[in-house]
Design a protein that fits this description.
alpha+beta; five-stranded antiparallel sheet; four-stranded antiparallel sheet; 12 helices
């Protein structure tokens, strides 16, 4: 690990001013940042510790209008919260299927959505060709080992997969994000937070230097209780998704018609991925497995696979179909 300047922020204003340098990083749980610093992938000149701000941004609020999660809430605390498990089960499931128990008790929600890709070429400084780590150097994954890489949202410059699970639940539930920064606070849709790789894979979000996520908000809606997160991976614990689906449905109890659908896909895309095409095929129709399969087909109609990861298209379709059927069959009390 290289030397760096360490600061412990006493308030939010001091934090954002200290981190305004483009080469500064925030430290919360540290489960991603310290890992990448040890690998010599990230080399921040300044590390701003925001752990002291937990009293302000570490709370969970659930009421009739919706759910608010502070960015410094620990993953385990949100996953185990009884009202989240009852009214927003997708949120709890996406968190409890991530990482290990020890990591979930350290990692924060804000840090989780900003975690970096697990692409082996990005995480290996001895690999020279990685546009995400060294802009303009190329992408070794294009012709290299790409079994775990993305098939949706890719570009000629990068096919690295976004690794998180929690983000799929947030994008499916139309979450908004509150951000603090040197220019003051602002709010944006979670769907607008991450950007596609395009020609600039090293730019992953719309956050500006010094900006810090402070909270996430989800409005109460008819579909939040009928929600599910399904994850397919190489092993049942401590493994990243090869394909996942975050599903929320509002269904007419009388005829089984889908009133609204929210679909997000993980493990298969370069950023948190909302499938509006799949949603449109379900809304206004009685739910059936055939409709679910049609929606899954539509979700992957724009896939661009490489030789090693082409299997993800069929795997992703099956995962999405299964998740839709499970969500539709949920019995709500």
């Amino acid at each position: 690990m290289r030397s760096f300047h360490y600061e412990r922020a006493q308030d939010i204003d001091a934090a954002v001013q200290s981190a305004a340098d483009a080469n500064a990083s925030y430290l919360a749980g540290g489960t991603t940042l310290l890992d990448l610093m040890k690998l010599d992938v990230l080399r921040p000149s300044t590390v701003v510790d925001i752990g002291s701000l937990e009293d302000h941004f570490g709370s969970i609020e659930v009421n009739r209008s919706g759910l608010k999660l502070g960015a410094l809430v620990r993953m385990a605390d949100a996953a185990e919260h009884p009202e989240i498990r009852r009214d927003y089960p997708m949120i709890a499931q996406s968190l409890e299927k991530a990482a290990s128990t020890q990591l979930r008790h350290m990692a924060t929600l804000g840090g989780n959505v900003l975690q970096r890709t697990r692409c082996a070429y990005f995480r290996d400084p001895d690999t020279s060709a990685c546009n995400k780590r060294v802009p303009g150097s190329g992408c070794a994954a294009l012709e290299g080992l790409n079994r775990t890489h993305a098939v949706l949202g890719t570009s000629s410059q990068c096919i690295a997969t976004y690794p998180g699970d929690f983000a799929q639940a947030l994008i499916a539930l139309d979450a908004s994000v509150m951000v603090a920064g040197p220019e003051g606070p602002r709010s944006l849709s979670f769907e607008d937070l991450h950007v596609p790789p395009g020609e600039t894979p090293h730019i992953e979000t719309v956050l500006q230097p010094g900006e810090l996520i402070t909270s996430f908000s989800i409005e109460a809606a008819p579909w939040t209780r009928r929600s599910i997160f399904l994850k397919v991976r190489d092993r049942e614990s401590f493994a990243f998704a090869l394909a996942s689906a975050a599903i929320a449905l509002d269904m007419d109890s009388a005829g089984g018609k889908v009133q609204a659908a929210r679909i997000a896909l993980g493990g298969v895309a370069t950023r948190p991925w909302r499938s509006h095409e799949a949603e449109a095929l379900l809304v206004g129709k009685p739910f059936s497995r055939e409709q679910a399969e049609m929606a899954a087909e539509a979700a992957f109609s724009g896939a661009d696979p490489r030789p090693d990861n082409a299997y993800k298209i069929e795997l992703g379709r099956r995962c999405l179909t299964a998740a839709l059927c499970r969500a539709a069959a949920m019995e709500l009390s």
